[in-house]
Structures are given as C-alpha cells and as structure tokens.
Amino acid sequence: MEITLHNVTFDCADADKLARFWSQLLGRPLDDGANTEIASIGISAPTPPRLVFVQVPEAKQVKNRVHVDLVATDLAAAVERALDLGAARLGDHADGGYQWTTLTDPEGNEFDIVAA
C-alpha cells in the first residue's frame, strides 16, 4: 500500500487573498476559479506540493502544530520578499548548522524560510 502527499490545506478567512500571497511568494500561478471560499495552487500538477485554501468560519487561535518550511539561497532577500508581500517576522534562529527565519502569512499561519 502506497500513501503519498496530495496537498497541503490552509484553513483561512479569505481563500483567494491568502492563495494570492502564497502564489506570489512561491512564484507559482494561482489555479483558475479562485474565490473567497476556495482557491488552489498547482492542483492539476502531476507532483506535489499542491496548496489548497479553504474558507472556515473560525479565526486562527493558537500556534500551528504543522508548518511549511521553505528553503532559499539568499535568506535575507527571501525574508524581505515575504515581508513585502504581507508576512510578519516572528524571529530569526540559528541552531545545528541551520539558519532560518520564522514568519507568519497574512492570516497568521507560521512558516519558516531556511538558508540553503
């Protein structure tokens, strides 16, 4: 039996708005048909990652238990780009030979950008 990752889903208040942030950040096109209730990136792509954004009635309450890690060859430039797109910086870290910055997207979902 094979199990594979199909997509990562974000609960959010405005699916279109949040999907546009991630589309711009990752340089991947938003799929057709995006609206405030549901939006996606790469849903027809043959391989993951696919990102899906689904509107939910409740607001985010606490820290994510799972988050997205991105990697960038120029950490400072990648963080600056994320901030320009609407992210917020939570902190800069270095441990175990890794350097990364923790940020939140416009709806407060945590993610890391790690230096390559």
Automatic annotation (TrEMBL):
Superkingdom of origin = Bacteria
Q: Where is the VOC domain?
A: 4-116
Q: A Pfam family in this protein?
A: Glyoxalase_6
Could you tell me which PANTHER family the record lists for this protein?
Answer: CONSERVED PROTEIN (PTHR35908:SF1), HYPOTHETICAL FUSION PROTEIN (PTHR35908)
The protein here is known as VOC domain-containing protein
Q: Specify the species.
A: Mycolicibacter heraklionensis
